Amino acid sequence: MIRVGIPQALLYYQYFPMWKAFFGTLGAEVVVSAPTNKTILNLGVSRAVADTCLPVKIFLGHVISLIQKCDCIFVPAVTSLGKKTYNCSKIIGLPNMTRALIPECPIIFDPEINLEKGRYYLYQNIYKLGRNFTSNPFKIKEAVEDAWKSNLAYQNKMSDKGITPLEAIDRACQGKQQSTFDSNPAPLLTVAVIGHPYVIYDDYLNHRMISRLQAMGAKILLPEMVPRSALDAAARRLVGEPHWSFEIDIIGAGEYYLENKVDGLINLSVFGCGPDSMMVSFVEHRAKELKIPFLHLSLDEHTSEGGLVTRLEAFLDMIKRRQRIWV
Fold first, then answer.
1. Residue 177 in domain
2. Lesser CB count within 10 Å: N end or C end of the chain?
């Protein structure tokens, strides 16, 4: 049985159930790296150049941690997911970057996902990937169908039940039913958190920000808790036709929650991200128009836990004082 390694970083939070279903149907064993920790971060930092953004450094650390644990590693090059919309260059060039910086890495499976080139090109690449596991085209077709069904169920589960990607993955893999979002006693504030999934849901990178906000008495709303069609419509209302594949997670979610009058909005990003610096300005301007408190947090490997907690506490205190004034 071929062991396929999947790093628990970057696109993992959006597509892992789909990937797991695809490789599982083809008879492969899926090996997932451990959650991000200090060792993994240091491994990635040791290989990447200084200007590399933190999520990529973490991804490289996860790849290194999988060496000797699998026969190959799955690192797709996700170029475009829609007409004239593109991913960040770090996602597009991830397979080549990984090979260059980690020469001891096992075989990398790197199909290009580029809908700009048409569905036939996509099907060719998926079929080529499946041929590494079976020569039966019908088995590959079955794997694709299972993967797509798994992805739809994953997205619907998050939006219908109001849970995070990590909770949805845990429920699918371990049968867990209780959501941590349902266990908090009568939250006083409603705060929306927007940003890339690989920033919001990596507890080591963001110092457990979501659970900290919950402990401070806030109900947390996240992009995955809203149907993608609603987020896409909100993004188009604010900026028109999207250019980046991930605008929906930032501009779309920001506009959607601002329109629904949340008590506050937090944007979580990483230092040095060019696309984020442009997108966040749209959401921040909109928040000022609607007079809704907005906090932008930029993280890197030097961000202190104490400093982050202080800013969160001050932000929630400001919202509470504002509510008392309006009352």
1. no
2. C
